[in-house]
Amino acid sequence: MKTARNFLPKTLAGLLVLLSVLIFSASCDKSDMLQETNLEGKWKLTGSYISIGGPQEFRLAKGSKDYIEFKKNGEFEGDVFSEYVSYTIKDSITVQLMKRDKTIQNYIYKIKEGELTMGPAGPIYCIEGCSTVFVKVRSGS
């Protein structure tokens, strides 16, 4: 037999769970989640952040046709970082590029609003900070 005493706490608990799920779902944009992890594909160079000791400056790569491509099978190619032939995603922010002779270079990467930013993360680093910026090339472009 249901009583008001047993019914009310269970109903409130259920409503709280439902409200929590709705708030969590609303705070996550599915397209952003997919975009954050989708390194695969072709990326066109747009510019670089560089510094000679002061704040970083963005240098636009005007008219550049340079690109990089992360292939599904782990191969890597392009005009930028052209000495590398394969890649491995180490974690959510680090990609490891490998040369034919198995020499590796780690890069910190971030994908935000369709823009990929990569900066060296060892064994070679930029003391003042540096990174290269790309935009995703749509299929058929």
Secondary structure topology:
Blueprint lengths: L3 H24 L2 H8 L3 E10 L6 E4 L6 E4 L5 E3 L5 E6 L4 E6 L4 E9 L2 E6 L10 E6 L5
Antiparallel strand pairs: 1-2, 1-3, 1-9, 3-4, 5-6, 6-7, 7-8, 8-9
How much of the sequence lies in strands comes to: 35-45%
The averaged pLDDT comes out at 80
The geometry reads as: globular
Structural class: alpha+beta
In CATH, the topology of the largest domain is named Lipocalin
Radius of gyration: 22 Å
Q: According to CATH, what is the class of the largest domain?
A: Mainly Beta
How far apart the termini lie comes to: 67 Å
How many distinct domains? Answer: 2
**In the CATH hierarchy, what is the architecture of the largest domain at level 2?**
Beta Barrel
Percent of residues in helices = 10-25%
Q: Ranges with pLDDT <50 over ≥5 residues?
A: 12-36
**Biggest β-sheet description:** 9 strands, antiparallel
Q: Give, in order, the helices and strands.
A: HHEEEEEEEEE
Question: Number of helical runs?
Answer: 2
Number of β-strand runs: 9
Signal peptide: 1-26
Protein name: Lipocalin-like domain-containing protein
Keywords: Signal
InterPro entries: Lipocalin-like
Concise structural overview:
With 141 residues, the protein is of the alpha+beta class. It has helices spanning 4-27, 30-37; strands spanning 41-50, 57-60, 67-70, 76-78, 84-89, 94-99, 104-112, 115-120, 131-136.
